[in-house]
Design goal:
Length: 283
């Protein structure tokens, strides 16, 4: 059985679920209110254009991933399309939200001892790493994955956990708070290196295993893609693009670390030269 994915599909299969529309509007509205009237009332630091652009971009990317026909394509036809959606809401949107968050957003949490202890625990790198990857692996187990395609409420919970734990996963890299700090550059490189391993393992497994998810085995075939090829492609999407992102960020961090080491060495050499020059002047 085949399905006809034509222009009409791309025009009509939009997911206008109220929870997505209202949730997105509330978050963006709250953000704009906070960086506007609320900031002026309490004389907080002004959010930069870069922060505003990053936050709104992250929200828009996740919003489009959930409401466009990509959602229907992934739910009803192609596992690989669903993996593109998951990539957008775990790897692209969450870090942009953190980059776009001003430090003072977190002051109420930091100043409350009970909330701060909880936040301190949840943002420990090992906890961030564990929560995200355990959650990601569990939802891709066939029983839970099949349940998300059959029950929309479970599907919503899955996406919410992906976004929340996605934010935590990127916290050690892009934390906006000095009280809940980022890792050092060396720590960030190691964290990213280790972060790529669980998704590589899961993606590789999906690439080489036979079709696992019942709804996709019986789904109408589109574009001549078999269930086996679809799962292989989905595994590769999970395996390669996300880790390319990690590699790009690690490379940028390594270059920054090298620049810092070079600047430190030059400062030490300058200091030594000034000491020797001063010593010679005294003699």
């Amino acid at each position: 059985m085949t399905a006809n994915i034509d222009l009409n599909f791309w025009l009509t299969q939009w997911n206008l679920d109220p929870s997505i529309l209202i949730g997105t509007a509330l978050i963006i509205g709250a953000y704009l209110y906070a960086i506007g009237p609320l900031r002026r009332r309490y004389n907080f630091e002004k959010a930069t254009r870069g922060q505003v652009f990053a936050f709104l971009s992250g929200m828009i990317i996740m919003f489009l991933a959930l409401i466009t026909p990509l959602d229907e394509l992934g739910d009803s036809y192609l596992f690989s399309a669903h993996m593109v959606q998951h990539l957008l809401i775990t790897m692209i949107g969450p870090p942009l939200l953190l980059i776009g968050t001003p430090e003072w957003f977190l002051r109420p949490i930091v100043r409350n001892p009970a909330l701060f202890r909880i936040a301190k625990f949840l943002t420990m790198p090992v906890i961030c790493f564990a929560l995200f990857n355990i959650d990601f692996w569990l939802w891709h187990g066939p029983p839970l994955y099949d349940a998300t395609l059959e029950n929309e409420s479970i599907h919503i919970i899955e996406h919410l956990t992906f976004i929340v734990f996605g934010v935590l996963n990127w916290w050690p890299m892009f934390s906006p708070s000095k009280d809940l700090p980022r890792l050092s550059i060396g720590g960030q490189v190691l964290y990213l290196f280790l972060s790529g391993m669980p998704t590589v393992a899961l993606g590789a497994g999906l690439t080489f295993l036979p079709p696992l998810y019942a709804p996709y085995i019986t789904a109408p075939r589109v574009w001549g893609i078999s269930a086996a090829t679809d799962q292989q492609l989905g595994g590769l999407i999970m395996w390669i693009p996300g880790n390319i992102l990690y590699i790009v960020i690690m490379s940028a961090l390594f270059i920054r670390w090298m620049q810092q080491q070079e600047a430190k060495q030059m400062a030490q050499e300058r200091e030594q030269y000034e000491k020797e020059d001063a010593s010679g002047a005294v003699i």
